[in-house]
Amino acid sequence: GSNVPLVSGSGDAVCVLEDQWPSPPRRRAPVAPNEEQLRREPWYHSRMSRRDAEKLLIRDGDFLVRESTTNPGQYVLTGMHCGLPKHLLLVDPEGVVSSY
């Protein structure tokens, strides 16, 4: 259980009870890579336009991650699917669109 004590009692007698409910599992928030770490990845291209990104994709399954030129600080997954380029904005679980 958690380490939060529950206090109960009446009058002068006070009794501290241990909370018996199980604690929920703790989830670690993923750590966002910084720009330097991203630059080491072969699939990462820093600030790049949609058009320039599309020129680099040849076959289905080709992909890259780029920083948006229209919205700096936002990252986009650009990939080739069924012969067409697709652009997906990368958003963290909190709904925040950024590199951190």
From TrEMBL:
Presence of the UniProt keyword Hydrolase in the record: no
Q: Which GO terms describe its biological process?
A: cell surface receptor protein tyrosine kinase signaling pathway
The answer, when asked if Nucleotide-binding is one of the entry's keywords, is no
* Database matches in InterPro entries: CEP152/SHC-Transforming, SH2, SH2_dom_sf
Listed GO MF terms: receptor tyrosine kinase binding
Give one Pfam family, short name only: SH2
Write the record's keywords in alphabetical order, separated by commas.
SH2 domain
GO terms for CC?
plasma membrane
Query: Which chain positions lie within coiled-coil regions?
Result: none
> Where do the SH2 domain residues begin and end?
43-100
The organism's superkingdom is given as Eukaryota
Protein name, UniProt field: SH2 domain-containing protein
Q: Which species is listed as the source?
A: Neogobius melanostomus
